[in-house]
Each structure stands twice: as C-alpha cells, then as structure tokens.
Amino acid sequence: MTSTTSEEVKLPKLDASGKEWTTWKVRLQVVVASRGLSGYLDGTMTKPIDPAAGKSAGWTATTPDEVKAVAEYAKTLPTWVEKDAKVRHIIANTLPNSLFIRLANKKSAYEYFDTLSALFEQRSVVVGAEL
Asked: Is the separation of the CB atoms in 51 and 1 below 8 Å?
C-alpha cells in the first residue's frame, strides 16, 4: 500500500485488488472513530428524513407537529451532509480511480463503505483461509 496524505488524515491507499483490505478497513474505522463519525461509516447515523417526502409538490406544513418536523429537518440536514461528506472524503482520498469510479453513484459514506465491503470481504475470507 502506498500512503496518501490529506489535511484530515494519513491513511494508506487501498490497492485496487483489495490486497490488505482488512488492514485498510480497520485503519479507516479508527480514523473515522477518532473524529466521532463512526455512525456515518456503519450506517447508524442515517440521513434525516424530509417531512415533505411522499407528499404532493405544493405541500406545506400546517399542523404544529409538521411545522416542528420541518424545522428539525432544516436544522439537522446540513450537519448530516457535512459530516457524511467528511467520511466520504477520507475514503475517496485513499482509493485509486479504478475503485473510486465504482462509488460515483453512491449517496453516503455508508454506501461507499458497504460497496467496498461487498467487493473485498469475501476475498479477504478466501485469502485468510489460504494462509
């Protein structure tokens, strides 16, 4: 693995073949945890749900509960977006282009990590068994 340096993190680049996936994964988890962002990586910090989702295009909050839900959403969404982007940035800066392109349509750090896990977890099990 070659190293990559950014202002936020020094984490080895993941080889495109997934070689050393397990080591890279653990290091990533430690870096993300050290920033208090583990929930974005493991999917437990989910994106706030837009109260207008599923409603007609002209929907407006009218009840006190709806008004409260809209205000809460407006307050929490920017923070979620920023923190999720920080984790995606950490991951993106440690990937070769051939892996990063596979994540282009993913919408969250969890989706990034889940996609990489699906690619390399089984390979890691096979390599471990061969050792």
From this structure: no
